[in-house]
Design brief:
single chain, 129 residues, alpha+beta, five-stranded antiparallel β-sheet
Length: 129
């Protein structure tokens, strides 16, 4: 009887940990932190994300800002609805709807090409193997 009680307590504790981990993983704060941490590890990528909220059938990303030489892109919100079952059963993401709001593209910081200063590219033949 004592062993059964220990097994029940262990399984109950494991189930509680799984539920807590799932709740944390589905929280917007944790998702935003994880995305920001992943983006920070990408060298040469200047991409900011304001908020991420993803669930089993939809995701929303707010406050996206991308800066590259000659390009500044801001997106207010990107929302998507998808089928989680399609991904779990076949590894395929099946989007039902993608909605993008508040797009701003700034190309003004692009370096202007001087007229008549371009040179033709030198093409080299490919070697056959």
């Amino acid at each position: 009887m004592k062993a059964a009680k220990i097994v029940v307590i262990a399984l109950g504790s494991l189930l509680a940990l799984v539920v807590i981990a799932g709740a944390v993983a589905l929280s917007s704060g944790f998702q935003t932190w994880a995305v920001r941490k992943a983006l920070a590890r990408q060298p040469g990528l200047d991409l900011e994300v304001g908020e991420v909220a993803a669930g089993l059938s939809s995701a929303t990303v707010r406050g996206v800002k991308l800066k590259q030489p000659g390009l500044a892109l801001e997106v207010g919100e990107v929302s998507a609805r998808y089928s989680a079952w399609a991904y779990l059963s076949g590894g395929m993401i099946d989007f039902d709807e993608i909605d993008v709001k508040g797009i701003a593209v700034d190309l003004r910081s692009a370096p202007a090409a001087a007229p008549g200063k371009s040179r033709p590219a030198k093409l080299q033949p490919r070697r056959r193997r």
